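Onboarding guide, step 5: your first structure request.
Type a short instruction followed by the sequence, for example:

Predict the 3D structure of this protein.
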Amino acid sequence: MKKILSITAACAALLSVFSCTKILDDEHQLGALGSDTFYANATDDQALSLITSVYSSAWGTRAGMEGYTDDYAVSSSYQDVSNDTFSGGLSLSTLYQINYKSNLIIENLPDNTEAKKRVIGEAYFFRGWAFFQLIRGWGTPPLVDHVLGADELTPSNGEPAELWAYVQSSFEKAAELLPSKPSLGSQRAFGARISKETVYAFMGKAYLYAGDKAKAAEALKRVIDSGKYKLMENYSDMFTVAGDFNDEYLWEYNVGDDDDAMRSSAARISYSDMWRGEYVVMPGGDHLCGLGEGHSTNQPSEDFYNFMVDRGEKGKNRMYGTVWSVEDAANKFVELSGDEYIGHPNYEGDNLARYTSQGYTPYQAGFMLFWKDFIQGYFTGSQGYFQSKIYMWHSDMFTATNTLDIYSKANYPVMRYSDVLLLYAEATIDSQAGLSAINEVRRRAGLDALSTYSLKDVQDERRAEFYGEGERWFDCVRWGIAKTEFANVGKMTYTLWGDRDHFTCSVTSEPQANYRGWDDKYLLFPYPTSELVQNENLKQNPGW
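The system replies with structure tokens like these:
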């Protein structure tokens, strides 16, 4: 099995999807993968290792799409795309690799034990999930519904109806084979694996994208009616160790908590998700272990902050767990200096005392700490608001040895129950059942219930609920509002300046040099030039 993983890794790094498929297929026929007898005689543990490789590949598609949003202060990710520089996390080759690995399992692994049946069910799920991602990214990707033979390596673009049928038939088979989560509170025992309900959640999402609201509602209702999932009470616990294996997560990437774990390859939240360390300090963050080297300049825009305030979310559950102002961050240092935090890994009392002992008020001390003692006093790429979601708490960190060894032990959710509820509300617009679903999400956010709702209400709720999770781009595209919502994204760049004498901030702006405005070609991603060269039957998406 080691050969499966090593050959796959080499293909992912060096080769395109179809050439990779050819090499893997040829190697399999030559016996480099252990031949057909490997699958026929595989133990349960070996079968588990096969599907573990698929889970690992799936994680590789996560990073990047969160940057395709109109909710960051400075973001031009979609305008930086060319045929060969698409930087979103949806890697064409990785998604086809997932489909390939899954079909190898489906076609070759016998279902002679319950463990193997579960692995086969997961393989059906992953090939459906991979093609769902391919369709919403590229529109008409070539359909590869089996392990390709030597004479099948140049498939043409797929037909939408056939592509969606492949996705849904794969999900249906997965739902048939996979077990349900037993009950509320059983997620940790069940593990970070795909359940029957996870399949129905993605089945419903795929039907909604395909335009079949009735079937979408039917699939999503199965999850809701199961009674096995619920929203976690504190939105701020999302993406933290406190949220691991909670009843809101239908699928989460798991991270072992052992300091000896391979955190550089297994951890899901890292230094790249943290506030840029040379500019400011995250209260309760990695500076408490003597480091402070976040790399992220992806911070919420003033427009997003005002959107949340205008919805009445200021000071409430969801907004506090999503976006902070500088004032919020400074006050967080004060909060973490309270007596109840003495002895806690996130305690800031000693740091705050460095300034309060000099006569500064607690807030002023927090302001100074936020600005890292004013070593620089500015933040490039911020309008004065900072992401408090997907946050690197010191208490969640692995023991770090250097600035590039900063990782969180927190699991990373891929499908949350709030997504199920809002997808269901969208599929059943203005029904009582849909109203109940959207209001369940609103209540957790700290908002009043609606008496009626529209598609615009669902759109706004999803924007608030899934900030920073990579869904915004696809939502806007499928709703037909991307051209409007993204019209000015990347037009300006901003710098936040701190005033240490008055404990205030100001923002300057200037036009961004590479701003090009919207082009309808962005609605679909481009196929890499290497694929077009190798496959004359593959047609490029419009405008690329």
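Each response can be followed by summary notes, for example: Residues 1-33 have pLDDT under 50 and may be disordered.
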